[in-house]
User: Fold non-reducing end alpha-L-arabinofuranosidase from Devosia crocina.
Amino acid sequence: MKASAVANKEFTIAKIDDRVYGAFLEHLGRAIYEGIYEPDHPTADENGMRGDVAKLVKDLNVPVVRYPGGNFVSAYNWEDGIGPREERPVRLDLAWHTSESNHVGIHEFADWCATVGTEMMLAVNLGSRGVDEARNFLEYVNHPGGSYWSDLRIKNGRKEPWNVKLWCLGNEMDGPWQVGHKDAAEYGKLAANTARAMRMFDKSLELIVCGSSNADMPSYPDWERIVLEHTYDHVDFISLHMYFFNPEKETANFLTMAEKLDTYIETVAATIKQVKAKKRSKHDVYICFDEWNVWYHSKEQDKKLLGGNSGWPHAPGLLEDVYNFEDVLMVGLILNTFIRRSDVVKIACIAQLVNVIAPIMTEKGGPAWAQTIYYPYYFASIFGRGTALDLKVDSPTYDGRYGDNAAYVDISGVHDEEGSTLTFFLVNRHGTENADVELSLQGFATGSVIDHQVMTHPNLEATNTAKNQDEVKPRKGEGATVVDGKLSVTLPPYSYQMVRVK
Ligand code: AHR
Assistant:
């Protein structure tokens, strides 16, 4: 199979917002406890945070981490997580039917973010609580001092405010599973009132209102329209969530979920425009895709853990998807979609970061390692920063369950002007054929290939485990060349590649 593409320096999509490579950590399963925090672990620092996990996170250069939920936030009292640890209450977490020790709260999370070099993106509880809780939490986190909540923060050991800019107004409020679930109008009014109060404190906050939990929700896409009609001028982003699954083991169909993602983004971008026009507003709202990942491998195990009379365990192993090589392709396609939609998707968070549907796994007292999907996320986060190129791609296509005209060769391109580097991320969705790709590079002062990484595996179901951590990992590619302004590269069947040219 042959494919070609044109990359022209003048044809760009947008400057990619670095925050599109963000992540998410929820008080769920072993994400926090035994994930980032394990005081007895041999690598734990003075705050009880695992050094091995922090290293893997740091390597990813994650720009922002959303916290503390997720479904968890909709019945969370943030005040439970402050003050002396031994006095913090144990609470029942209704979302995941577990016990929450509150040993980690905002202070511990903020310190961890500083350690790994990331920004906080905080969510307020608009399920069981509302405006009052949000304004108090904001005052605690961002006010310098001289008020009740800011002085309490200082008393609890943190003098400087954290100055968190990004705030989520609840989580998945369209979902009947959510504590305090609301219809679009109810939620829209509450979110607008909460946003107004938060903006009275600080006009420069960046606020994120809840969009749909997925594109199959019966309320989608009216939810977005109604919520934005209530909130448009008070918020900066609307959040979207989507999880990808392949229980039937139909790879070709699975990989067309990227087409569904693209349509979802396109539809919500159109809804934003519609509401903007209706409101005669000059303000722009963008998409914050704050939960995305493959999620299905652990469903059966979770049914057992969550079903029946499972009690209220603390930090059980929930949502522990073990990712395979096939998921590398899916994650590569998702990230390519975000790069190509960087004009409207400004923030995105892989869900989640450690243990719970995550690129990083840990064993209690034992090792931490990179799952298969760590690598495409790593390459995009480290090398996918700059300006997204509007590539003209010509590739054979196929039709699948979740979308038609899916290009077998899926490509995104990023121009880093500062470093004078071009980076291409390529996925071959064909299961049996090589793809010979020729990329015409127009207007760039490019010389040669400076990096070429390839991920292939004879077994789509191959995984990385504690004992075999390197079964699926990138290797240096061979044979990519630049001759007369043309980059040539061959993609083996079902492969992911990154090629960098300078
Ligand atoms: O990320 C796991 C869960 O998925 C989150 O808690 C929720 O927001 C979504 O349904």
